[in-house]
């Protein structure tokens, strides 16, 4: 992994995601306690919802299945398995959007994905981004691994 300067925008967005996930988790817990749902969603499903909302998807579409200085994570190479169902063209575009999310801004990557108006690209990006952010948050100890 290449050591780079912290990407402040990415870190701010991760902090915001953590807050949104905590709020969703608490809301689901309360709904569970009131008997409105059978069981609270897993953390990865909550993350899928939060990212889906940013992409403009409705909830039912997204629920399918040492000091403060931190370095920016290297953009993950989406594994071949995760992208195996995509055409070569989509695979490259999704990887480019993931790179933008991790190097620049999650919101910028989402805006670029939505601007394409390519639903296959947006869906694939959604899936891969959720997987990569989930891994990142688990590695940071912010989420529990399934």
TrEMBL record:
Coiled coil: 7-38
Alphabetized UniProt keyword annotations: Coiled coil
UniProt biased composition (Basic and acidic residues): 52-63
Ranges for region Disordered: 52-82
Superkingdom of the organism of origin: Bacteria
Name this polypeptide is given: Uncharacterized protein
Organism: Candidatus Yanofskybacteria bacterium CG10_big_fil_rev_8_21_14_0_10_36_16
